[in-house]
Design a protein that fits this description.
By secondary structure, the chain is mostly beta strands. A 4-stranded antiparallel β-sheet has the order 1-8-3-6, with no helix packed on it. Strands 2-7-4-5 form a 4-stranded antiparallel β-sheet, with no helix packed on it. 26% of the residues are buried.
Length: 98
């Protein structure tokens, strides 16, 4: 009799990019547009930040909180972007998932 091992939910890694976030809390930085087959993105930042996903988004300090060095997966629509803002210098790593 064969043993059954359940698999963890997973996605294929796609295009990755880094978005530089500045120390000016009023300045939002955005990624390039997501690909035509991207329905999820993996985000992780080097410092605490706030992010917003949308069409030409501008992140503000009341948007979704992303803690430093905690990878999180978000649902998106192909062609959208993610924007981030932080009170310190940070890099937001954006990986498209399919």
């Amino acid at each position: 009799m064969a043993a059954f091992f359940p698999k963890s939910p997973a996605s294929r890694l796609g295009t990755a990019q880094n978005v530089a976030l500045s120390t000016t809390s009023t300045t939002s930085a955005a990624s390039t547009n997501f690909g035509t087959e991207t329905y999820q993105v993996l985000l992780v930042a080097t410092a605490d930040c706030n992010v917003r996903i949308g069409n030409t988004p501008t992140a503000v300090t009341t948007d979704t909180y992303l803690p430093a060095k905690v990878p999180m997966v978000f649902i998106c629509t192909p062609g959208q972007q993610v924007a981030g803002v932080t009170a310190s210098t940070a890099t937001l790593s954006v990986t498209e998932l399919s």
